[in-house]
Each structure stands twice: as structure tokens, then as C-alpha cells.
Amino acid sequence: MTYSYWLGGAVALALIMPAAAQDAPRKIFRGEVASLDGQTLGVKTKDGQTISVTLTPDWRVRVVVPIGVEAIHTGSFIGTAQVPQADGVGRSLEVHVFPPGVKSGEGERDWDSQKGARMTNGTVTGEVTADAKGRELTLTFPGGSRKIVIPPDVPVVQFNPAQHADIKPGVQVFIVAMGDGSSGWKTNNIAIGQNGAAPPM
């Protein structure tokens, strides 16, 4: 796999979205595939609504694959949805590990998976320690850093290439669509879970 597969354009996954695209209007959709008709994807969201997303000509699919937490070490570039605690330490809800050499979306921004959640992408600096509470590390990004605790039961994943044929009714998906709603939504990337699991983002 070449790293160019992960990058380029207004990548739909916010965690690997180029900086210019991150400022564009976007909306996250989580749910299951209701239909796929040419370049039009129907997604049934968790609130029961079915929304329509236009797939760009270069659309791709990635499958979220669990990996061991030991894959995270000093120098790793990772992203994590986390909730800052009273002491400022972020408690992870999920972690995604980028391939070596890939750094995108560095920084911290609001995330919608849980009230008060933030998405933090950065480089692991200093020592990674472990105890009964989980892994503890520091993520550093331009303009700041965040101490992170990864509890033992938190999913740690990476993204692997998948096929268009994997997108079929009933498959659980995670999509970050671009647009403002009035003119429709579009995306060039879809994330799916492995073996029917919902992507944890």
C-alpha cells in the first residue's frame, strides 16, 4: 500500500482530512447502508432517517481493523476521540493509528461522538507508560499538546483498503460528508467496520 492512498483531495474522514478541507462545511453520518445506486449512497442513520450522499468519481472505501495497543509508541502519529477530564487529561473513546510517515489533521477540534468530546491528532512524544488504568502518553501538535489516557477497553484501530463491492445494504458505515445540506452532501471516502462491526469513531 502506498501512502498516497491515504491522502489527497477533500478526504472524507475528518481524521485524515487535509487542513484546507477541515474548514469546509461538513457533517458526520453514522449508520448503515440502505442503498447504492450508481454514485448515490443512501444511509439510514441511527435516528431512523435515510440521507442521500453523492459519491465523487474517485470514492474509496477503508475498513477499520483492530490492532494491539502496543502498536502505539514514541514517535507514532495517532488520532483519538477523547473527553478532557477536570485535570485536562484526555480520556480516549477510540484510537486510530496512522501509517509511518503519514501526518494529517494535526491539532484538536470538537467531535460529536459524545458530549464534550474532542478529536486530537498528534505525535506521541516522551515515554508511553502502562498500568491497570491503561496506556498514558502525550500527543504533541502545532501550538500545543494533550496528555492522553487510553483505557484497556478502548478500541485501537488502523484503516486498510477495501473494495467498492463491500458497500452493500446493512453494512455499518462512518462518513464525513462535505456540503451545507441545502445543495446536498458528497464524499470521496467511506469507512466500514470489520466483520459487520460499526466503525468506532
Automatic annotation (TrEMBL):
Leader sequence segment: 1-21
Record keywords: Signal
Protein name as it appears in the record: DUF5666 domain-containing protein
